Amino acid sequence: MKISETSSQKIKNMSLLCAILVVSIHIEWTHDQSLSFGWFMYNAIAQGIARIAVPFFFVVSGFFLAQHFDEDGWWKCEVKKRIRSLAVPFFLWSLIALVSTIPLSIVADMIAHRPFGTNLYILHDDNLLRLFGLDLTEFPLHVPLWYVRCLFLFVLTGSMFKIGVTRFKYVWIACAFAFLLVCNHLPGENLRAFFRMGYSASGFFYFSVGVAIQRFCMTEVSRRTAVICGIVGIALLGVKLLLTFNSWRFETIVGKLSLPFLICFVWHFMTAIKLSDWLTSCSFPIFLMHTVLFAHIGIVLKHLPIEGISKDFAMFLGGILGSIVIARIFRYFTPKTAALLFGGR
Which stretches within 83-194 are classed as H helix? Predict the structure, then answer.
């Protein structure tokens, strides 16, 4: 099954939106006061609607991998592609994140009159696997890279998805979703961490959905179905906010239940208007760079007379616009370097 030009453009547009939503997830919105604007930004957006972003990326990735399942030598070919598009950027950005914050740590020690190296985590963190993103029970030092790492693992185990989804179809999808809901209750802290930050149970479900869409249910949902999904998703999100406000249990599970409905709704109504290629091609750079920029933007903001939610929005916009500007500079002046940093995207 080949993807239409309309769907291709919708994927580009929604990928850009989801990259922006990921930035919002990593902002510590000022939310101490219940029902304040910051509280809604944190709980309804960052911990609510924005959570559709990474699942959507997994769905799309599963879909595109499944397009090659019937080709001869597909596994070897696709793994080779992902070494360039995922593994190389993973290690480059792990190194960039490690190195770029060292000067900030040294300056912080100097300002605070601390001994040299006091604030250098590289000298005090004995988990070298984590520093380079290889500990599957921890987030990488550069947190967004957990998705890149997990996606590469899914491609390595692509044959399992091909066999499982093709043979068991909806049973496979249902079991994957059930596992997603219960994985936080598995025995053993390391096992729970592995299925959250390493071989993600959430990613496993949404990647399987992407494979399933390509293999046997590649149809556009009707407007009526999309609206119903939107109503259900927003209702579940409202329940999650109520549970959060009252500090009741199960808000995490309710939030997870809302995401498939919200993704379906947003996808259906996502515009297929062609945006500039230079803009839509910034989705991956935004995803990769924004948290690296946050450390530097935060220092600048400390010297500006803004606080609270205004400071949060400044950080949010700085992470997005800064990533776009840097990506444009690299692509204009050093396109080969940009291809390495951004995996050819």
Answer: 88-100, 102-111, 121-124, 128-131, 145-156, 158-168, 170-182, 189-193
Could you tell me which of 131, 135, 103, 132 has the C-alpha nearest to residue 119? 103
Contact 22, 288 (CB under 8 A): no
Instruction: Render pLDDT for 107-132 as a digit per residue (tens, 0 to 9).
Output: 666 666 666 666 666 655 666 777 77
DSSP letters, 238-292, are HHHHHHHHTT-S-HHHHHHHHHHHHHHHHHHH-------HHHHTTHHHHHHHHHH
pLDDT one-digit tens code per residue, 307-340? 899 999 999 999 999 999 999 999 999 999 999 9
In one-letter notation, the amino acid at residue 208 is: S
The pTM of the full predicted model, rounded to 2 decimals, is: 0.93
HSE-up of residue 237 (Cα within 13 Å, Cβ side) = 24
Q: What is the dihedral of CA 93, 147, 190, 126, to 10 degrees?
A: 0
For residue 299, which of 157, 34, 111, 158 has the smallest C-alpha distance?
Answer: 111
Cα separation, 51 vs 304, in Å, equals 31
Place of tokens 């491609």: 155
SS3 70: coil
The Cβ of residue 179 has, within 10 Å, a number of other Cβ atoms equal to: 15
Asked if 51 and 259 touch (Cβ cutoff 8 Å), the reply is: yes
Position 107: which residue type?
V
Residue 323: exposure state from Cβ atoms within 10 A (0-12, 13-18, ≥19): buried
Tokens of 210: 């992407």
Give the list of residues 6+ apart from residue 189 with CB closer than 8 angstroms, or none: none
For helices 201-216 and 145-156, give the axis angle rounded to 10 degrees.
50
SS3 state of residue 166: helix
The single-letter code of the amino acid at 80 is K
